[in-house]
């Protein structure tokens, strides 16, 4: 028996680790139910399934010994999910604010330790160009009272998506999908032409984004990175 194998697991780790797969499975089931409900036009299913998503993913990250900032980011995402279930401007701003705090958590996490020097300059320039072009195109179609909040939030989200790349391909893809998901929301607010079943595509990209970000952080933690 190796010296590593002979050491006991940290207190509580072995007991909670066995819940990781069931929690991830429950998250995936809730995601499928939510997406199916959106495709079928069943609003009640969406109202029940959507608030379950981020708590289940946060619980999975917890039993996988994920960093507190990851868990906080997911829970602030849950706050945004709940606020956005209400269809009014105040709820939209509160939801956007909750997501913004989650992005700050992600940015802080991505800025720790070795990650500080690993962000790609080329990717940063590409994200900046995409953000600028998108805001220029959509600006006049946004309600006047939402233009500044949307621009500020978009800048923060874009920074998070760019910095996510320091933790590898999973996190980089998650950041990009988060940006795409919120861009789809913004085009809906601006009343641009949309894909069929637009809420389905918003949730599909959002769910995939949060899952990939969480997996990217957890994989980086196993590899000894921040």
Describe what this molecule looks like in 3D.
The protein has helices spanning 3-6, 13-17, 20-40, 43-63, 68-83, 89-110, 121-138, 144-163, 169-189, 198-222. α8 runs antiparallel to α9 (169-189). The relative contact order is 0.12. With 226 residues, it is mainly α. 77% of the residues lie in helices and 0% in strands.
How would you summarize the topology of this molecule?
Blueprint: H1 3-6, H2 13-17, H3 20-40, H4 43-63, H5 68-83, H6 89-110, H7 121-138, H8 144-163, H9 169-189, H10 198-222
Low-confidence blocks of residues: 1-11
Order of helices and strands: HHHHHHHHHH
Fraction in beta strands: under 5%
- Assembly context of the chains: single chain
Q: Summarize the main sheet.
A: none
Q: What number is the mean pLDDT?
A: 89
The counted number of beta strands is 0
Give the terminus-to-terminus CA distance. Answer: 30 Å
Structural class by secondary-structure content: mainly alpha
User: What is the 3D shape?
Assistant: globular
By DSSP (H or I, 4+ residues per run), the number of helices equals 10
| Helical fraction | over 70%
Rounded to an integer, what's the Rg over CA atoms?
Answer: 18 Å
Give a short overview:
The chain has 226 residues and is an all-alpha fold. The chain contains 10 helices and no strands. Helix 6 packs parallel to helix 8.
List keywords for this structure.
single chain; 226 residues; 77% helix; 0% strand; mainly alpha; globular; 10 helices
């Amino acid at each position: 028996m190796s010296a590593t194998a002979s050491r006991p697991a940290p207190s509580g780790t072995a007991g909670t680790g066995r819940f990781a797969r069931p929690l991830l499975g429950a998250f995936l089931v809730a995601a499928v139910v939510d997406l199916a409900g959106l495709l079928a036009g069943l609003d009640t299913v969406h109202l029940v399934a959507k608030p379950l998503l981020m708590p289940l993913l946060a619980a999975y990250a917890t039993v996988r010994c994920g960093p507190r900032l990851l868990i906080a980011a997911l829970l602030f995402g849950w706050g945004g999910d709940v606020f956005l279930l209400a269809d009014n401007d105040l709820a939209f701003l509160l939801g956007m604010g909750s997501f913004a705090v989650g992005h700050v958590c992600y940015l802080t996490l991505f800025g720790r330790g070795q990650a500080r020097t690993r962000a790609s300059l080329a990717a940063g320039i590409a994200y900046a160009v995409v953000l600028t072009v998108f805001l220029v195109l959509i600006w006049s179609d946004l309600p006047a009272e939402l233009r500044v909040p949307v621009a500020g939030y978009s800048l923060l989200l874009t920074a998070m998506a760019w910095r996510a790349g320091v933790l590898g391909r999973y996190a980089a893809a998650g950041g990009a999908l988060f940006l795409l998901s919120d861009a789809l929301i913004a085009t809906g607010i601006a009343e641009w032409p949309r894909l069929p079943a637009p809420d389905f595509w918003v949730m599909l990209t959002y769910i995939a984004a949060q899952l990939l970000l969480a997996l990217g952080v957890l994989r980086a933690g196993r590899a000894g990175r921040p």
